[in-house]
Amino acid sequence: MFVIRGQEESSVRPLNREILRISIPSIVTNITVPLLGMVDVAIVGHIGDAGYIAAIALATMVFNLIYWNFGFLRMGTSGLTAQAYGANNKEEFLSVLVRGVVIALTVAAVLLLLQYPIACLCKQWIHTSPKTLDLMLTYFYIRIWAAPATVSLYVLKGWFLGMQNAASPMWVATLLNLVNIVFSLLFVYVFDAGIAGVAWGSVLAQYSGLLLAIVIWVRRYGHFWRDIPWRTALQWRKMLRFFQVNADIFLRSLCLIAVFTFIPYISANFGEEILAANTLLMQLFTLTSYVMDGFAYAGESLVGKYVGAREPRTLRTVILYLLGWGAGLAVAFTLLFLFLGEGILRVLSNDETVIQTAMHYIPWTYLLPFVGFAAFIYDGIYIGATATSAMRNVMFVATAVFFVLYYALVNQWSNHALWFAFIFFLLFRGILMAIGQKRYVVIRN
User: Fold this and answer.
1) At what angle do helices 15-32 and 167-185 cross, to 10 degrees?
2) How far apart (Å, rounded) are the C-alpha atoms in residues 175 and 180?
3) How far is CA 207 from CA 14, 35, 201, 212, in A?
4) Residues 279, 179: Cα–Cα separation, whole Å
5) What is the per-residue pLDDT across 82-98, written as a single tens digit (0 to 9) for each?
6) Exposed e or buried b for every residue in 136-148, given b needs 16+ CB within 10 A?
7) pLDDT digits (tens, 9 = 90+) for 357-367
8) Per-position DSSP letters for 69-84, written without gaps between them
9) 166 by DSSP, 3-state: which?
């Protein structure tokens, strides 16, 4: 078996150690991701009125909607790379990297070409003051130039995970956020660049992260450079497989966006207090997701490796261990929310009316970790096994269940119907993927 510099043969490690080796850096990486937007908000919050904060919030929403749709570049790359790694197929894992980068740069070019039409759509859909809209567009037209770095980093992060290397994405995310803080502060407070300075800080941060990722690749994997199959990597048949996997994940992501966009949208219909309360309570779910996703990433990496290595016994064991970690974390988060939930809410807000409203609905959050852990873990397992069409179909069913339950119960249960539907959205995903595991998470001939 080929040896990657600086990396031991993972087969000699206990499986739980392998899981933690990937999941812990991934959790740290996940936690750093929202810092980019938080730093921007914090800086503009001290340079102008509320219009600056609103402009950053709106621009961040637009970029989240854009980039969330291209998250498939990371997930599809990690699963395919992990399988090639497990199969000792050097040509294939290098080909996956080439395909991913080519598609990422193509996507970035399209985004840059369409920046004006996207801005026009924002003008049509976003209803705010002319001043806030102008500030938002100033930020948008600058930060959009980070698109090549942003989507390329998706691919490199997925490739590193597929190569069983979760530490490199962590260091990249750490540098990215440090650069964002330093340069945003420099442009705003030294050069008085206002919201444009904040945007340029974000752009430089993305390219700094990309530069570090390239340096890491050269140092750890540069000896593979001469082996990259440039001519065969983009063969139509292999590209079709790559597109199929990523199209499935893209459609799955659209369903997630539909659900998570619907929750604040429909919450607003219940009034500002319910909207604020639901927003606070969803932060508890977000906290859970940061940790659970770390173990989902471990699933992508390890399941893909053992599918590629054709080791069914080890594959079944790693799935069992991953679900065990998920269940343990579910218990821990349930206890955390049960005993410290109100305290966490008070850290997030000092509005007593909103806190009391949130406390009326907080029992639903006690169920979230327990009913949701399987959905998180199985997402990683299915991606690692590249069973993306099955994962897509499960998401279709779960999303339909969410909307059917909500509209069937909203007249009687009001906001409780929203939480009930969300609980079943998570529960159905986990149950259906557990049922389909033996059929779809398999070692193919």
Assistant:
1) 10
2) 8
3) 37, 16, 10, 9
4) 29
5) 999 999 999 999 999 99
6) bbbbbebbbbbbb
7) 999 999 999 99
8) TTTHHHHHHHHHHHHH
9) coil
